[in-house]
Amino acid sequence: MEHLVSLAVGIGLAAACGFRVFVPLLVMSAAAYTGHLELSTGFHWIGTLPALVAFASATVLEIAAYYVPWVDNMLDTISGPAAMVAGTVVTASALTDVDPFLKWSLAIIGGGGVAGIVSGATTVMRGASTLTTGGLANPIFSTIEVAVSFAFAALAVLVPLVALGVVFVAVYFLAKKLFGRRPRRQEV
Prior knowledge:
This protein has one domain. The protein has 7 helices and no strands. By secondary structure, the protein is mostly helical. The longest helix is centred in the middle third of the chain and has 34 residues. Helix 1 runs antiparallel to helix 4.
């Protein structure tokens, strides 16, 4: 059961990485620094004061940058791969007492994959927002993304199994919405 909980923490934080790269790292760092989250061997540096300050600074800069017109769309191209790396790192750091091969397999496939799916979906939605509103709705979209990222990250640390369920449901509906069956054209 302990392995499932640590995987749920990692996957929940990875999903939050898809919305904002540094928010879940900040939440994870704060939780580890205050003793509310145990980190895997080799990742204890995440729970140190210098890491907490660095993640807080990076989070503030990332959030602010998404409110600058056209910079938000540029950041989406960079944040996709960065979110996958961050999703992999947070998942690996949450998996305690797991065989290294299994840890990194789950981290890359599960954490990186979930972060990539969420990041891709937000990129598509921001692009649609930019096209339909000329970018005027993007600050609202950015505010929602930050709130959801903080909520997913907090949920992952506080109630990991619920977070895992929410992630699976959200990914299912995102995938269904983005890749669902298109109606067939009637042949004449």
